[in-house]
């Protein structure tokens, strides 16, 4: 089997060091963003700083500077920013309050269920996988699972909240920088995204690392028990993410759809016009949904794939031989990933300069390519020093011999599958290519053909990502069974810091555009922020592609771990218990989507009524002489999302419990597999359809080609048809679609955590 | 084990007798329809006949008779009818010509592949399931499979073609009868539907029965080989149905969408206005898509479930003991089903009378309930006389003991699951209930919310049908393994004659309305046909629900038979070969839908251009003084559908071959299971979403309630939004949705037919 080159003490230094470096790096980025002053008297110095700061951006100012001396605009921006930040903070606190109650209740349930496995006995028991040894009691697993569940939930909250804070800190600053040119605005938005990306990656890693070391003080050599209880971390992170994604998704899209339906369609006023009462709610929504929700989501994926890998490793030769370095291989990969992303970020902020709007999208794409290539080298290196040349991996009852280069390939195949998914997503959602242009063209004959073509595009965009995931699964499973799949997922997520940076960049630019419009700034500023935003739409779709691809791998790995833990060796489709599980599981994403889409629809209808009421009852609103009542719209979105996130959340959280308790682990396996294979498809197609509609609309609005100009301008019939498509796509791409990857992951990790309970007490109905 | 009460000679009399009775019954119905004369001089006698005919309908004429003496109208109707009939016949001949070439090629392929299993050896071989016996050579199976394949294809063609003939014979007659009242029109349309239903059910049964008896002359006691080659019948039927559904679906929706987009949306002329150049193509489409396509589809389901049941029975105690009565139990159930449907039909045509438009939908629903209740008794009776009290069923390698009452329950659970699916579908697609009314209400805020609510409705409508199918699978599998599931499917299809009658009634009424409009008849006539058509929309959705539910069961049964035949005993989700199959299989319905939706969209765009061209270039067209060029529009639909049906058809036909040959039977099992669990959901949601949009539009147009009137009238903004939804729903409900059930069935039956080949020569890639 052999030794690892890297000693255990090296691991104990490497992981926290990488995390600390990442945190320091993100604080530096934050500091750089903070140098853009949001008060009039600081303005001149900011301009000077920007012009001749240490990063040498003096040559940036190739575009005309706009309104740099208008102090009034700065004040307005600061005002709007604080309104958005306030709304977002207040919503998140309300959300966390309600979800907090749920989390505590679920923590109690977790403790009771897991504690009851051995009747709350405090005496040691024989281990599950190695019956010759004694392991810590089930009660300990119950306690530590509960603790790690709460830790995961808390880290998820922190990730989302910090992301929202930096985003609402950066949006107005991006707007102000846009006066100096598109390059400066890009840097500000991207740096802010990087703050979120690195903070999240570092926190996720650090908390997990500390938890493992603390739990080890109690568990000692019982790594089976130790890593079984660590899986609570993934469950906590994902549960929080579910509510964050669903609640935030309903919030943002209710406001967005409501604002657009009255403002753009009925009143013919521009997007983000300050006269629209729902405009603040819309901008708040970007921060709580697309930033906080997405941050929690990706943190959840990261936590879950780490936990899945660890729990499988603990019953493989790493765990049996107590090889700490190899055991923490998943965390080492993530640590190296952070360093790789750090270097990659410099390519966007320091090594290259954006001088023209056309360079934005390539610059963001370059981030993906650079990080993937560097990481490929990193993975090879890490696998060489942190893994023994040969080892065994638990494979449903037997041990499979694996070489270190094979495991390295598993990580790499995940990494590259992520890149392929990213590029395919870009092809189907960017308006630089024919699919979106065809959708835009179909707007000639109205909204109906636009929707038909858009749906067809989304369906078609599923094909290559599914093949990529399938190849990834086949290769990594063949080499290293379920551990290989977990590591492929971690490989896809190893560049999460960069992924999040370019993902968060989108909503920040979106907000920046909103602030420019509301502050009544020059249309050239708005054009610059629009260009940033259009690239952001594509990167957001790419981010969703990553999230879904990794979710598919993660949940498969968790599924494998669950099956092992539940003590079943085959999940036979030919058994009626499994096939009905498959069928019902494949239905769950539809049920879930029905709930979330209807919620957005109903909340949007309420919003529309309120906005119409204000336009009709507040004199002078359309003329711009009276201010709308933003607060009521914020309240409508808040109330709707808090109320409406409960049923879909309950569906996801309760299904594994009900199925496991009533029908047992076999049917539950079917449900997990069914929801996985069906959910992935709907999630990908919904995200891409929505992204394509959004960019088809932007294509017509921008009018950058001969073809686009024949469809435009804004207000033409094809443009109106495009707006309808965009509105339909909103809940698809930002509410139901991205929530589905949490659905498949969460059900899997929850099943894994409760596997000991189901194996002991489950399947009541079939026992009668 | 025991004997059956019914001797073999009884079976030999019962089955053909029932088929002949059904054919006679449908000829009588046809004769009754033909008494409505389509020539002016026959008019008076027809009116007299109708008024005091032998059925005693004199009291029917509670509504005012309209224009009975206007000979001109009759001539116009006859003209339009012959144009529609001509278009439909010409399209079907073109379609059959192209598909015929494909069928012959595929027949050759079938022969070569199956013949090569034993290297075209003519010597007998040991049987697959009972190695102590000698069976006929693989070459014989190849020959007879090819023959039954062609027989199935031919019967499918005949079913579709005859249906189209009666439908295009009845449509104008329904219009003319509508002048005398809604009751007379209903009877005419329903009788014509019954002609199709009974002809199809009887043909399907009779051809299968004769084929078995003829094949038996060669096979003798080798029932394993006999029924293995009979499965080609299902494959032939379903292959033909695939092209019929897809080709017909593209034809009808290209014409429908194209006609609506220009006529209703741009030119503000009513639906089916004779000035619209696409109007004939639209009406032809109803007959080739909704009639011929659907007929082939349901015939395919019927043939496949019979074959699945027979092939499993042949290796169970029925086949081993050569118990001919029990062996033909599936055909006996279908025979009794025909008798039950015959009685049920009389309730609609003779025992009750329709006096008001409100009675139409309940009358059709009553058909479902009566047939289900009568059939429940029939099943119990048949199971008692045609089955031994106890027998064994092959269950993946072992034999499972089953009692006759248990098998009877399997059939009954399928029958009732069908009824539940029917009622749920009705609830979600009829505008008498809140779901459709909510969708209509969401049109207040425009097309976007309409689409969001409609999609959510479709997703939600999946829940109960999936649970019904799951319960059905669990019960029937527990009682009688895969044979139970095949019999549950046949149970659901046992009332196929009634199902088809009420299903075909819809497009006939739709055509009748179109003819009324084109002939310039009084608006009251159009109101009557509209009422018939609205009920037809709901029953069409119910019919699709049945088709999908039975397809799910059928393909599961075929899947089980395939797995047995391919010699694998478990399909383990935890094997990478299976899980990648599952994932890719679940993706296929999306790929397929992307193709068909895009085809409809592109063909509709071409149609729009042609219609616009005619409106712009033919002087006097809008004023009604010049006639449009209908033939060009018919040609556009024909060309588009013939060309566009190839790629989706190839996808479905080639996937099992490619996967089986390259990846082997395990991956193919995964693909079949994946496409089954994912396809069912999309098919149900697509059909119901489309049906709901259609009826939401009709709800606003009819303005039958206070609420509906606040949304209307025709031409209001909410109505325009509803029209957009209706147009989007067209390809969903009539092209991609219903084709998906053929996709899942066909891949399963094809895998079963080629199972011996895959088991011998398959999985090349993994052998390297």
TrEMBL record, chains A, B:
Name the record gives this protein: H(+)-exporting diphosphatase
Location within or outside the cell: Endomembrane system
Residue ranges that the Swiss-Prot or TrEMBL entry lists as coiled coil: none
Keyword NAD appears in the UniProt entry: no
EC number per UniProt: 7.1.3.1
Keywords, ordered alphabetically: Ion transport, Magnesium, Membrane, Translocase, Transmembrane, Transmembrane helix, Transport
Transmembrane region(s): 6-28, 98-117, 137-164, 185-212, 299-320, 327-348, 368-387, 407-428, 462-486, 546-568, 574-592
Superkingdom assignment: Eukaryota
Membrane topology: Multi-pass membrane protein
Keyword DNA repair: no
One matching Pfam family: H_PPase
An example Gene Ontology molecular-function term: inorganic diphosphate phosphatase activity
GO annotation, cellular component aspect: endomembrane system; membrane
PANTHER family: K(+)-INSENSITIVE PYROPHOSPHATE-ENERGIZED PROTON PUMP
């Amino acid at each position: 089997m052999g030794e690892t080159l890297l000693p255990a003490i090296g691991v104990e230094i490497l992981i926290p060091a990488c995390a600390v470096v990442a945190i320091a790096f993100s604080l530096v980025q934050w500091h750089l963003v903070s140098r853009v002053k949001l008060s009039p008297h600081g303005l001149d110095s900011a301009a000077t700083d920007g012009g001749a700061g240490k990063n040498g951006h003096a040559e940036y100012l190739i575009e005309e500077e706009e309104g740099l001396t208008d102090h009034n605009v700065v004040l307005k921006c600061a005002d709007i920013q604080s309104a958005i930040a306030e709304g977002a903070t207040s919503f998140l606190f309300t959300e966390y309050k309600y979800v907090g109650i749920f989390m505590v209740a679920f923590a109690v349930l977790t403790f009771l269920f897991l504690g009851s496995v051995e009747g709350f006995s405090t005496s040691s028991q024989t281990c599950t996988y190695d019956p010759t040894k004694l392991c810590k009691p089930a009660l300990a697993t119950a306690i530590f699972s509960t603790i790690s569940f709460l830790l995961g939930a808390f880290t998820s909250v922190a990730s989302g909240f910090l992301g929202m804070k930096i985003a609402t800190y950066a949006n107005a600053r991006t707007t102000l920088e846009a006066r100096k040119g598109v390059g400066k605005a890009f840097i500000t938005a991207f740096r802010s995204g990087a703050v979120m990306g690195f903070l999240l990656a570092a926190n996720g890693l650090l908390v997990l690392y500390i938890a493992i070391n603390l739990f080890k003080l109690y568990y000692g050599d019982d790594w089976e028990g130790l890593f079984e209880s660590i899986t609570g971390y993934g469950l906590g992170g994902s549960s929080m993410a579910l509510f964050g994604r669903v609640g935030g998704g309903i919030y943002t899209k209710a406001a967005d759809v409501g604002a657009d339906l009255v403002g753009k369609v009925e009143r013919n006023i521009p997007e983000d016009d300050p006269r629209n009462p729902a405009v603040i709610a819309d901008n708040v929504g970007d921060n709580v949904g697309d930033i906080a929700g997405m941050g929690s989501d990706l943190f959840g994926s990261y936590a879950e794939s780490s936990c899945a890998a660890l729990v499988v490793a603990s019953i493989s030769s790493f765990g049996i031989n107590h090889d700490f370095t190899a055991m923490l291989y998943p965390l080492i990969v993530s640590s190296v990933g952070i360093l790789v992303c750090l270097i990659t970020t410099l390519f966007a902020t320091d090594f290259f300069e954006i001088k023209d709007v056309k360079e934005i999208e390539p610059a963001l794409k370059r981030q993906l390519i650079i990080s993937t290539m560097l990481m490929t080298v990193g993975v090879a290196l890490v696998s060489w020093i942190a893994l023994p040349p040969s080892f065994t991996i638990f494979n449903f009852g037997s041990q499979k011999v694996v070489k270190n280069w094979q495991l390295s390939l598993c990580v790499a195949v995940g990494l590259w599958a992520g890149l392929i998914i990213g590029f395919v997503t870009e092809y189907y959602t960017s308006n630089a290519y024919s699919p979106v242009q065809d959708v835009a063209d179909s707007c000639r004959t109205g909204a109906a053909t636009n929707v038909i073509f858009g749906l067809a595009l989304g369906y078609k965009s599923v094909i290559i990502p599914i093949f990529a995931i399938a190849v990834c699964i086949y290769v990594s499973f063949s080499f290293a069974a379920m551990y290989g799949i977990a590591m492929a997922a971690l490989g896809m997520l190893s560049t999460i810091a960069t992924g999040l940076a370019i993902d968060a960049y989108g909503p920040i630019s979106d907000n920046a555009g909103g602030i420019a419009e509301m502050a009544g700034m020059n249309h050239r500023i708005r054009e610059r922020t629009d260009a940033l935003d259009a690239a952001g739409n594509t990167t957001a779709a790419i981010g969703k592609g990553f999230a879904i691809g990794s979710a598919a791998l993660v949940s498969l790995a968790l599924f494998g771990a669950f099956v092992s833990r539940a003590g079943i060796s085959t999940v036979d489709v030919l058994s009626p218990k499994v096939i009905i599980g498959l069928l019902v599981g494949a239905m769950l994403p539809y049920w879930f989507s029905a709930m979330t889409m209807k919620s957005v629809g109903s909340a949007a209808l309420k919003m529309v009524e309120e906005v119409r009421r204000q336009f009709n009852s507040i004199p002078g609103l359309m003329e711009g002489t009276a201010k709308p009542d933003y607060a009521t719209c914020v309240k409508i979105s808040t109330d709707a999302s808090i109320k409406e996130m409960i049923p879909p959340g309950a569906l996801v959280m309760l299904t594994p419990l009900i199925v496991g308790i009533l029908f047992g682990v076999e049917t539950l396996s079917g449900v997990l597999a069914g929801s996985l294979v069906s959910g992935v498809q709907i999630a990908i197609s919904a995200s891409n359809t929505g992204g394509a509609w959004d960019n088809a609309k932007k294509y017509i609005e921008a009018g950058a080609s001969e073809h686009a100009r024949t469809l435009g301008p804004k207000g033409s019939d094809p443009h109106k048809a495009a707006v309808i498509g965009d509105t339909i796509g909103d809940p698809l791409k930002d509410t139901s679609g991205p929530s589905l990857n949490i659905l498949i992951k969460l059900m899997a990790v929850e099943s894994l955590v409760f596997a000991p309970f189901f194996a002991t007490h489950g399947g009541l109905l079939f026992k009668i």
